[in-house]
Design goal:
four-stranded antiparallel sheet
C-alpha cells in the first residue's frame, strides 16, 4: 500500500540525539530523525542551529555518515540552506569524492554544471517507476544524490524503496527464476524511437562504441542505416559488497515491452518485429519473461514505496544498491538535479 507523507512531518518523526564521532559538540550540531515509524528509510538529518555548514559537517563525519547510510539506505538532509548548484556539487564531492559521468544512458538528461545532471527529462504527466540507477548494466554508481532546487506546484515527489525489502517481498518462485537465469537486455538504436546510440554512448565514433561494449561485456551488431543492436547479460539480484545483504537490482519491469501503456504497445507492434523493438528484456538464456511475474515485481515495489513531499533545499543521498527511486507526475516548474559517485563494476568484482 502506497504511503504518502503530507502535512506536518513532525507527527511522523521519532527524534533521537545524534551521537557522531564520539564528540559531544558534534552530537549537538544536528538532529537525526526517522521520517516514518515503521522504517528507517530515509533518515532525516537537520541542523541543530542556523550556523551549521553541511559541507564542513559531512567532511568531519564521513565514516559515521556511511554507517547510517548502510543501515537506512538513504539520508535526507533538510534545513541546511543549500540553495545553489555549486553548493550541491561541493557537498556531494565532500561526501563522495569525484562525481561520475552519466554513461551508457537509458533516459534523456543534460549537464547542469560539471557532472551534475538534470533528473530524467520525461514529460511531467508521466510516472517514472521505482528503479536503481544503471541496474540494467554491469557497472553502476554506488551513491546517487538529489537536490530539490525548485519544488513543483503539485506532485513531483521522488518515491524511494528499500531494495532489501523489495527482494524479500517478491514471491519466492519469481525471485528464484530471476536469480537462476539472470537477464538479457536487448536495445535497438537508430529507429527514431528511444535514444540514439550517439546519445547513449556519448560519441559519434563507431570504434569508441565498440571499445566500450567489449570492455562492458555488451554484444553489438551494426545494422543498415547507421542502426545498432546491443545485448547484455546482467544480474537480477546482487549481494551488497559492504553489508552482504541480497537486493533486488534490475530494470526488467522498465525494459519489458509489456510495461508500455496499452495504446503505445499496440502501435509499437505494428511498426517493429520483436527483434527490432527499441528495448526489451529476456531471461539470460533468451527465454521470454512472463508478464505476470513482472506484475508481481511491480506490486512488491508498490508495497514498499515511500513518498514524501520535497522542500526547497532538500538533499537526498541514496545508496544506489540499497534504495530504489522514482518520480511522480507533477505540475508547474520543477528542478531536481542529480550527482552520481563511487563506481562499482560487477564484472571486476567477480575476478
Amino acid at each position: 500500500m502506497q504511503t504518502t507523507l503530507v502535512g506536518d512531518l513532525e507527527n511522523a518523526v521519532r527524534r533521537r540525539p545524534a551521537t557522531l564521532a564520539g564528540n559531544e559538540s558534534i552530537a549537538a550540531a544536528v538532529s537525526i530523525s526517522a521520517l516514518r515509524s515503521d522504517s528507517s528509510l530515509p533518515l532525516v538529518i537537520e541542523p541543530g542551529s542556523t550556523n551549521i555548514d553541511l559541507i564542513d559537517w559531512i567532511s568531519s563525519n564521513r565514516e559515521e555518515l556511511e554507517k547510517h547510510l548502510l543501515d537506512a539506505g538513504g539520508i535526507l538532509f533538510r534545513g541546511f540552506a543549500i540553495d545553489s548548484i555549486e553548493q550541491f556539487q561541493g557537498l556531494t564531492e565532500a561526501a563522495s569524492g569525484h562525481l561520475l559521468d552519466y554513461t551508457y544512458r537509458s533516459t534523456p538528461r543534460h549537464v547542469v554544471s560539471g557532472k551534475i545532471y538534470t533528473s530524467t527529462e520525461y514529460p511531467p504527466h508521466q510516472t517514472i517507476p521505482l528503479h536503481n540507477e544503471n541496474s540494467y548494466t554491469r557497472n553502476w554508481p554506488m551513491k546517487i544524490w538529489f537536490f530539490s532546487r525548485v519544488v513543483a506546484a503539485t506532485g513531483g515527489e521522488t518515491p524511494i524503496a528499500d531494495s532489501r525489502r523489495v527482494y524479500q517481498r517478491i514471491p519466492h518462485g519469481v525471485r528464484e527464476r530471476f536469480e537462476r537465469s539472470g537477464l538479457m537486455y536487448v536495445r535497438n538504436y537508430g529507429s527514431g524511437f528511444d535514444l540514439p546510440w550517439q546519445e547513449v554512448f556519448q560519441t559519434t565514433d563507431w570504434s569508441e562504441v565498440e571499445t566500450y561494449c567489449v570492455a562492458s561485456g555488451i554484444e553489438f551488431e551494426w545494422l543498415p542505416d547507421d542502426r545498432l543492436r546491443t545485448r547484455q547479460r546482467c544480474q537480477a539480484v546482487v549481494t551488497h559488497p559492504l553489508t552482504g545483504e541480497m537486493v533486488w537490482f534490475n530494470q526488467a519491469h522498465l525494459f519489458h515491452v509489456s510495461r508500455l501503456p496499452e495504446e503505445v504497445r499496440a502501435a509499437i507492434w505494428t511498426i517493429f518485429s520483436e527483434e527490432d523493438l527499441p528495448r526489451n528484456v529476456y531471461y539470460g538464456d533468451g527465454r521470454a519473461i512472463d508478464a505476470d511475474d513482472l506484475d508481481a515485481i511491480c506490486e512488491a515495489y508498490e508495497q514498499e514505496k515511500i513518498v514524501f513531499p520535497w522542500q526547497t533545499g532538500d538533499v537526498l543521498l541514496l545508496d544506489n544498491m540499497l534504495a530504489a527511486h522514482a518520480r511522480n507526475p507533477f505540475t508547474g516548474p520543477r528542478q531536481v538535479v542529480v550527482g552520481m559517485a563511487e563506481p562499482f563494476d560487477e564484472m571486476r568484482s567477480r575476478n
